[in-house]
TrEMBL record:
Lineage: Bacteria, Bacillati, Bacillota, Bacilli, Bacillales
Gene Ontology CC terms, in alphabetical order: cytosol
Organism: Exobacillus caeni
Matching InterPro entries: MTH1187/YkoF-like, Thiamine_BP, UPF0045_domain
Protein name as annotated: MTH1187 family thiamine-binding protein
Ranges where the Thiamine-binding protein domain occurs: 4-97
Amino acid sequence: MAIVDMTVIPIGTKTPSVSSYVAEVQKVLERYSDRVAYRLTPMSTLIEGELSDLMEVIQAVHEAPFQAGIKRVATNIRIDDRRDKEVKMDDKLVSVKRKMD
């Protein structure tokens, strides 16, 4: 199980707002919800699942702004792939919170 932190940046939009593009990315992710879990944050989207599924999802998400007419897209990804045990997004948060007590 891997976790990906992903930011899709459409370049050349008509306004500074990108929320409509973010909404389209979330729609793409919903189509894959049977294979990956995802969470929108104010600055990026987190997805978790098997690495092969995540790579497929990343490609589909990267394509979303092109489908909306954007001619250039920059997608940043950071992959946390831990193979000694299965760790989910919430597990990582619980671990940190326990150490704060």
